[in-house]
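Still learning. Any example?
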Amino acid sequence: MPADDASFQLMTALVYRAGSSDERFPLLSRHFARLKAAHAAFQQEEPSSWCSRVAMPSDDQMLVALHAAVQAAQREGNEGDLRLRLLVQETGEPRVEAFPLTPMPEYPVRLVLDDRPSSYSDPCMRYKTTRRKKYDDARSRRGATLHPSDAPDAPPFDAILWNAKGEVTETTIANIAFRFRDRPHEPYLTPRTECGLLQGVMRSELLEIGSIQEATILVEEVKKAARDNSLSVICFNAVRGIFSAYVAIDDSV
């Protein structure tokens, strides 16, 4: 799908830690690098997009925008940690939205597999932008709400996406990793970049420090392990951190 000028902004989501004395914006350099990589990708893959005509803001400009958004939120009484959306607009100007940060629960959240494959030919499925309809549609058709609950009859928290080859890719808001209990000596395995996914900031960090490894993970092996109760699942992104999950299997997938 061509990326026309008015249809999208580049985006990354991050956290402001109010109580931190040394790293108020964790992984900030990775967030800046992510935006620059997205801008370069759209220049190449969608030469008609605004990214081909408009330069990226500098790191200093983006940092000023982040601090201004935090200060505005604090003036409104939000003194705790914040969830921030750092956007690069089609004018090249940074814009930041700030929200109170809601922590994830300690119990594992329920995930369900999407009922159809996702195509990753659109760069908006590989680089984070405000064009999120395909992710929203996946949650909608699977009844996922992004509202965690441990009630047995509660709707799922999120949907797991997969590609045309039957390879797991990600959830609609996070990267994902699996540990198969019949392979206890293996680390958590996360889908390979080549499978098609958003390369999240937390994913990059966990790969670099060796907490997870890339692998090709098939939908069928996830379904089998989930049915056998031999699967451990974690999800992660820069806002929610690392959180536990489980895969609920039904006959529709």
Q: What stands out?
A: Residues 1-6 have pLDDT under 50 and may be disordered. Residues 94 and 212 are 32 Å apart (CA to CA). The first helix runs from residue 28 to 45. The domain at 109-247 is CATH 3.20.10.10 (D-amino Acid Aminotransferase; Chain A, domain 2).
